[in-house]
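queue> pop job 88
queue> type: inverse folding (structure -> sequence)
queue> payload:
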């Protein structure tokens, strides 16, 4: 009889401990996924800003005043390389974008 009571108590303790661990793991995973989504959104925003910067520098280089300037040409080439590196990095992370592209549509979070 005593053995059954000890087994019942141990089973109850392990059940409660397992439940607590599962709840903690679920909460941690939820926080981790939220952080991952925020990082992905930040990367997409950075990619868009760098793309706009590269286009701005490129359009400035095409103006007659700066055409052929080696410094501006180097900046344009470097800006394009940076945009490519950001695109490669963003592509290595699975980021869900809506069909209208990044920042094109609803950017509200559903938390």
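queue> result:
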């Amino acid at each position: 009889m005593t053995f059954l009571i000890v087994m019942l108590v141990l089973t109850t303790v392990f059940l409660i401990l397992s439940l607590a661990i599962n709840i903690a793991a679920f909460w941690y995973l939820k926080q981790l996924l939220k952080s991952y989504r925020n990082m992905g959104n930040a990367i997409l925003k950075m990619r868009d800003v760098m793309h706009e910067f590269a286009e701005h520098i490129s359009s400035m280089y095409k103006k007659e005043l700066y055409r052929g300037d080696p410094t501006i040409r180097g900046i344009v080439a470097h800006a394009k390389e940076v945009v490519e590196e950001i695109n490669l990095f963003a592509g290595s992370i699975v980021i869900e974008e809506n069909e209208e592209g990044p920042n094109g549509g609803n950017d509200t979070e559903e938390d």
